[in-house]
Amino acid sequence: MVNISIVCSLKSPFLIKKNHSDANIRESEDYIPGRNLWGAFAAIYRQKNPDKNLDEDENFYDLFLSGKVRFGNCYLKNSIPVPLSLYECSSHQHGHFKQDCLVDQPEIWKCQNQENGIICGLPLKPLSGYMGYDNPIDNLKIQNPLTELRMRNHLAYQSFTTGEGGLFTDMVISAQNDFKGIISFQEEKKRKEFIDIFKEELKGGKSLYIGADRDIYGKIKLRFSQETELFVGKSFEERWKNSSNGKLSFSLTLLSDTIVTDDWLGTPSRLEPDLLKEWTGLKGELRLESWFSRIQPIHSFSNVHQMPREEDQALSKGSAFLYSYKPSGSEAPNLLHDKLKQLEQDGIGFRLAEGFGQIAINLPIHWKKP
Prior knowledge:
Layout: E1 2-10, E2 25-27, H1 34-48, H2 58-65, E3 69-71, E4 75-76, E5 79-81, E6 86-89, E7 98-100, E8 114-115, E9 118-119, E10 124-126, E11 130-132, E12 142-143, E13 147-155, E14 162-173, E15 178-185, H3 188-197, H4 199-202, E16 208-209, E17 219-227, H5 236-242, E18 249-254, H6 273-280, E19 285-292, E20 295-298, E21 301-302, E22 307-308, E23 312-315, E24 320-326, H7 335-346, E25 359-361
Parallel strand pairs: 2-14
Antiparallel strand pairs: 1-15, 1-17, 3-15, 4-15, 5-11, 6-7, 6-10, 8-9, 11-12, 13-14, 16-17, 18-24, 18-25, 19-24, 20-23, 21-22
């Protein structure tokens, strides 16, 4: 895979509606999903080629439908989702306890910090938000995008009066935020074609529009550069070398929501070893030692058909899994390393072109002591 990195500078707030919101509040996602960029670029392609029949356009198929181009999620600049395995003392004021619990789980899930011989004893709670690529656990900085509340009213089309339930609130992402993500290409040729077709948009000459109510929300400008890693920070080789707990183990963390199915086409609550062996072709003994995961529904809307798309279930971004591996006797010494490096580049699951299935192997936060 070859990649380009894109930075999204907001020229207006955006509203990408969450899966579920209260009746009179429209709350935005706090990141730019890859599927929204995917749709925005596809719409621009249609505008640039009004006379083409896209059903027969091989270039359109290659760029947007084949999976050869993958539009990753854009998070706050230089940050990734906090893993679900990261916990702290439930009292924000104390700052007693902050630990990633994937590799080293606490014996008692209560804060054991002592002051004047007294144990805190408050329950632990998971952290949420976004963190820097390589934050030290003892100086962990959690950040969230700036938001705005906007009161609005809905005017009836004919009478221009406010109808029943016409007053509502938008919780939007402020234009003061910058977001960063990755677009990946299976071939260098496709990367060059993409840059050539969308050079005005990628260099900030023309704006893109994402999300709802684009007359007032969702205007962004892009700038891009080449990237060699799926996210900025330590290379795969550094992460592989620096992670160890005394045996051949590795962690797998979801950087985006991931759609996978089991043998009965249901959504598993965890990534079973058999799934990883199927994706990688590994023959040795693979065990799932610990995990922190969550399932959530995925809703989206088709602007072409003006209809909601069918709901999917996905493992939530931030889900984290720890595996141990015992190679078979005939395996090459570096086979696990090579297979996992390729898996990180390829992603896992379905709808990869829309930003689902991004993963990181051996995220440093899992292997650091508090």
